[in-house]
Amino acid sequence: MGHMTTNLAETINSNLRKIRNLLISAIIMSTYKRCNSLFIQRGKEVNDKLRADHVYTETINKAKRDAESKTNSHHILEFDHHNTRFFMQEIINPREG
After folding, report:
1. Which pTM was predicted?
2. Which of 52, 60, 68, 74 fits as disulfide partner to 56, beta carbons 3.0 to 4.6 Å?
3. Where do the structural domains in the chain lie, given as residue ranges?
4. Per-residue pLDDT tens for 39-83?
């Protein structure tokens, strides 16, 4: 969520630099129009991704792929319900260096 806040702050700052000498009402209207156009653009991008069955962002997809690749290299020996701990064994692949 931090990167979204940073992008919004950077957008507003760059917009305010361009309109520094205008009246306050003009500054507010300009900021509103610019933010609105960015929200519309981002909404279209999200809709396109959802139509293409891209439910998660690329960062999340990469994390999921990494986690899935690690699941083949571990074996759960025991699960302690009382302490909620897994006892696992790492499976060593002789093909990996």
Report:
1. 0.41
2. 60
3. 2-55, 58-92
4. 999 889 888 888 888 878 888 888 888 887 777 777 777 777 788
